[in-house]
Amino acid sequence: MRIHVETFTVHKRFPLTISRGTTAQTTNVWVRVEADAIEGWGEGSPFSVGETPQTTEAIAQQLQQIAPALEPLHPLDRQRIERVLQEAQLSSAAHAALDIALLDWLGQKAQLPLWRIWGLNRDRIVPTSVTIGINPPEVAQQRVKDWLQLTCAKALKVKLGSPDGIAADQAMLLAIREVAPPQVKLSIDANGGWSLTDAIKMSQWLEQQGVTYIEQPLRRGQEQDLLKLYERSPLPIFVDESCFTSRDIPALSDRVHGINIKLMKSGGLSEAMRMVHTARACGLQIMFGCYSDSGLLNTAAAQLSPLADHLDLDSHLNLLDGPFSGASLQDGRLLPNDLPGLGVYYAPQS
């Protein structure tokens, strides 16, 4: 098989501010795996958790370096391919890009969409949330109006953990409640921006505001404190940065209610499926989320979304110039199509 690697840059319609900073554009990596006159597509999106960022340059370089070792193999040689990837110690984002491309190739070879190969039911897909970043209250209100006009969203994920403290978080949330329709569900993602004391206070206050759950209230590395929060929070707790792969799940199962699976963290759809089964075996709920992912990656995640309790696959909806189309937004739900593989096609926005 032949492997092609190139990069592309996308720009956000609304710059996104979280507890760790603001993002207005990203450069992602597009991977194409070619064999038997079929091309499978994958994508690597840069992200950062803690002190080990996975950059665009590193992802592209790793993929280019591994390509010669993979070329003698066929996309169906998955065990042999996996051994090569493990020996190369690829980053999770580079591994994900290849895994997704290989599964896209497989679906096209079988002439079936991946969700159909896995026997999933699109009717089970819940609405995806759209994200409101940390902003002054009046800006946050305008973002809500913009998103509702753009997507008719059924759910809002609000980023809290403001560097100005929980008073600023509360002011922003109250402002959002003033303009959000009552039927729109609200969830919170603090991105590790709270102390344990503030997380306990906010969980109790947010429950009174009708919020559905809290994501990553404490920073990665404070997993021991999650148990104390779990015992006192009236709201379900989900983790994101604290959970990368299926190996992380059992140790968290007594202190959280669910996990956020992101393809860049997990290393692709194959590990994401393992995470789903591991989490369910531990009695946990499932969420699928995204970074600065284009329509290619969110369409890939949508293939597994019938297995999720919550979805946050909105990053491509916030792009001015996303080059890929695939899953479509219908009544607030991101639905994969009937095309084989991922069902993604190249359609640059002007």
Automatic annotation (TrEMBL):
Q: What SMART domains does the database record attribute to this sequence?
A: MR_MLE (SM00922)
Q: How is the cofactor bound?
A: Binds 1 Mg(2+) ion per subunit.
- Coiled-coil positions are none
Q: Where is the Mandelate racemase/muconate lactonizing enzyme C-terminal domain?
A: 137-236
Among SUPFAM superfamilies, the record links this protein to: Enolase C-terminal domain-like, Enolase N-terminal domain-like
Q: What class of enzyme is it?
A: isomerase
Question: What family does this chain come from, according to its entry?
Answer: Belongs to the mandelate racemase/muconate lactonizing enzyme family.
Record protein name field: Dipeptide epimerase
In which organism is this protein found?
A: Trichocoleus desertorum GB2-A4
